[in-house]
Design goal:
Helix 4 crosses helix 6. It is built from 10 helices and 7 strands. It starts with a helix and ends in a 28-residue tail after the last helix. A hairpin with a 5-residue loop joins strand 4 and strand 5. It has 3 domains: 123 residues, Butyryl-Coa Dehydrogenase, subunit A, domain 1, CATH 1.10.540; 107 residues, Butyryl-CoA Dehydrogenase, subunit A, domain 2 (Beta Barrel); 146 residues, Butyryl-CoA Dehydrogenase, subunit A, domain 3 (Up-down Bundle), CATH 1.20.140.10.
Length: 412
């Protein structure tokens, strides 16, 4: 079984996808089959170089801008095609969660100043990565509590100082969307080029999700032009964050479920092969039950993530709730499946170079990335106690002044 075999039964449920969308998915699956990834025991620098090369190669084939609106030079395909692409990527390696689409660069689509947006979109279309810097040492993504702050500088510029932790794609990103308090104390967001002055980063070796570098980003009076570099208007940071992650989390979930589905297929094929060559007289009932139950649970969680993508694409207010609880549930479902399935192949699934062991470590780490799961469930429960989910505000950018006077007011 390959990734497309798993996805094929879903075709009747996805009428918005044309035959060429499915052909594109099959080409992606075949291309990733041909690429030989460094093993999980290989140095992080080697793996990150490989992953960035894969992203650039897929970007050249159009996978980076697949769902980008035509007005911005993209193919304008349905958002669900992005989720399915990420399922295929996860099937091969969970570190490929940034292999297609804009990733966190999607924040730039409708919010940044036009010149800045178009310049970054061209870089993203060529395979560059944009990271996100929101979390601080108090943990999680509670950006309401951030202390990173901008101060006023000559010519209307802002200078940002502070520290961001647990930043992924640290050494590979061409820039970061940074969340901070503007000079009026409001939470805002801006794009900062990795080559900008005042930036310093420190790598930390993680136990899972180690393909990309990860660690601390420090800002020492990093300059920002509020007239062109802001994502949304001043003070729109919370809405920017919420809207973005309502769309981003189901893509991460689909990638995680793809990784678990790939483990499922590997285990099923290994058991079948052992019976075929006479190593086993038959597959025991407990293994058959595990295969059947986890096939059902992974497929159900995938359907939920696809529904979340559809809600986000339609601007439905429930997308944020579904993204939060769906990410927590989907990743836990994926990890539970791998925990149950990997022992069925014995010690071979627990060697240092085993893709099963890598998937297990990566999924365990993903329970803490893009939102700690207890926090996501808790916030979902809080939303469910209200009369209706909180409205997800669509963020729009204020009119951009000319370059020479690109200054926004510091009070509103």
């Amino acid at each position: 079984m390959n990734a497309m075999d798993w996805l094929e039964p879903l075709r009747p449920l996805l009428p918005d996808l044309a035959s060429d969308d499915w052909a594109r998915l099959a080409r992606l699956d075949a291309l990733l089959d041909q690429l030989t990834a460094p093993g999980p025991d290989v140095a992080q620098a080697v793996r990150s170089a490989y992953l960035l090369q894969v992203r650039q190669q897929l970007a050249g084939a159009g996978y980076a801008t697949l769902t980008v609106p035509a007005a911005h030079g993209g193919a304008a395909r349905p958002a669900v095609s992005q989720a399915l692409s990420q399922f295929v990527c996860g099937w091969h390696d969970l570190d490929l969660r940034d292999a297609t689409g804009l990733g966190h660069g999607a924040l730039l689509l409708g919010a940044a100043g036009a010149a800045v947006r178009d310049r970054w979109l061209a870089r993203l279309a060529a395979g560059d990565l944009v990271g996100i810097a929101a979390t601080e040492r108090h943990g999680g993504s509670r950006i309401q509590e951030i202390t990173t702050r901008a101060t006023l500088a000559p010519r209307g510029r802002w200078l940002i100082s502070g520290e961001k932790t647990w930043v992924s794609r640290l050494g590979e990103s061409a820039g970061w969307v940074v969340f901070f308090r503007d000079p009026d104390g409001r939470v805002s967001a801006a794009i900062i080029d990795a080559a900008a002055p005042g930036l310093q980063w420190e790598a930390i070796q993680p136990a899972g999700l180690a393909g990309w570098s990860w660690g601390v980003l420090r800002l020492h009076q990093a300059p920002v032009n509020p007239g062109t570099d802001l994502i949304g208007s001043p003070g729109a940071g919370l809405a920017v964050f919420r809207e973005h992650f309502a769309r981003f989390r189901p893509l991460v979930t689909a990638t995680a479920l793809g990784a678990a589905a790939g483990v499922h297929a590997t285990v099923a094929e290994a058991l079948a092969a052992r019976v075929r060559v006479g190593m086993l007289p038959r597959v025991r009932d407990n293994a058959l039950i595990a295969l059947g139950r986890n096939y059902a649970s992974l497929t159900a969680a995938l359907l939920a993530s696809l529904a979340t993508v559809a809600l986000g694409g339609a601007g439905d207010v429930r997308a944020d709730l579904w993204a939060r609880v769906g990410k927590a549930y989907g990743v836990e479902t994926a990890l539970s499946a791998v925990d149950e399935l990997a022992p069925l192949v014995g010690a071979a699934g627990f060697t240092a170079d085993s893709p099963l062991a890598k998937a297990r470590a990566d999924l365990a780490a993903l329970r803490y990335a893009d939102g700690i799961h207890d926090s996501l469930y808790r916030s979902g429960g809080k939303t469910l106690l209200t009369d209706r989910p909180e409205q997800v505000t669509t963020v729009t950018h204020l009119p951009v002044p000319s370059e020479q006077d690109a200054v926004l007011p510091t009070s509103a």
